[in-house]
Design brief:
about 160 residues, dioxygenase, Lipoxygenase domain-containing protein, oxidoreductase, 2 domains, single chain, elongated, metal-binding, mainly alpha, LipOase_C_sf
Length: about 160
């Protein structure tokens, strides 16, 4: 039987919130996990997994137990065949690509916030995101291999799978 309270305790989370600070921390963790952390692990997965030896989805032979006995023939016989490799590439491409209904961090399709104070906070947040994006672009300028997966404009407001 599943015990949600046991899981909460196992993860080190409190079973109740006693202050605004605790609520703020919990919300910050939830927002970070579903935005920036998800982008960090998701957005580059095709670039990594498209080279099948990096992360083979299956192996046709057990991994070698002695690195001195490894041959190219053994590696090729161990890696997935072309069909499985294509399936792996298709799956990671679909999972890692920008979703057609993606909404970038800090953008909202509906007017949930209409009061002046929240609108000012949203504008301040968007300005900070722009600063971060400009900084990342500046650091990547001139690089042959740019790291752009964590550009705020490429981080979604939430996970859309």
């Amino acid at each position: 039987m599943f015990c949600p309270l046991c899981l909460v305790n196992l993860l080190g989370m409190p079973n109740k919130l006693s202050s605004k600070e605790e609520l703020s921390t919990l919300l910050a963790v939830a927002i970070f996990t579903s935005t920036a952390q998800h982008a960090a692990t998701n957005n580059g997965q095709f670039d990594w997994c498209a080279w099948v030896p990096n992360t083979p989805c299956t192996m046709r032979l057990p991994p070698p137990s002695d690195k001195d006995t490894v041959t190219m023939e053994m590696i090729m016989a161990t890696l997935p065949d072309v069909g499985q490799s294509c399936v792996q590439m298709a799956i990671t491409w679909h999972l890692g690509r920008a979703q057609p209904d993606a909404i970038p961090l800090g953008q909202y399709t509906e007017a949930h916030f209409t009061e002046l104070a929240p609108l000012q906070l949203i504008e301040k947040f968007r300005m900070k995101l722009k600063e971060i994006e400009d900084h990342i672009l500046e650091q990547n300028a001139g690089l042959d291999l740019q790291y752009l997966f964590l550009l705020p404009s490429r981080i979604e407001n939430s996970i859309t799978i």
